[in-house]
Amino acid sequence: MPKKWGIEAQISMEERMACGIGACLACVCKSKDVDSHSHVHNKRVCKDGPVFDAREVEL
């Protein structure tokens, strides 16, 4: 919705983090881009976030 009005927005995500360093991939959220670590459409909340540009993640 922020894109509709031409404003920037950030989203703070919260997930359970098993390792806290991005190795276990337990804290992923859906992403519009391919993750460089897992090579799928995910972002690691513990490593890549927890704050994301609203255009990066799928809700």
UniProtKB/TrEMBL annotation:
A GO term, aspect molecular function: metal ion binding
Any single GO BP term: pyrimidine nucleotide biosynthetic process
SUPFAM superfamilies given in the database record: Ferredoxin reductase-like, C-terminal NADP-linked domain
Cofactor: FAD
InterPro entries: Dihydroorotate_DH_ele_sf (IPR037117), Dihydroorotate_DH_Fe-S-bd (IPR019480), FNR_nucleotide-bd (IPR039261), PyrK_electron_transfer (IPR050353)
UniProt entry keywords in alphabetical sequence: Metal-binding, Pyrimidine biosynthesis, Transport
Segments forming domain Dihydroorotate dehydrogenase electron transfer subunit iron-sulphur cluster binding: 14-57
One Pfam family here: DHODB_Fe-S_bind
PANTHER family listed in its UniProt record: DIHYDROOROTATE DEHYDROGENASE B (NAD(+)), ELECTRON TRANSFER SUBUNIT, DIHYDROOROTATE DEHYDROGENASE B (NAD(+)), ELECTRON TRANSFER SUBUNIT-RELATED
Protein name: Dihydroorotate dehydrogenase electron transfer subunit
Organism: human gut metagenome
Lineage, top ranks: unclassified sequences, metagenomes, organismal metagenomes
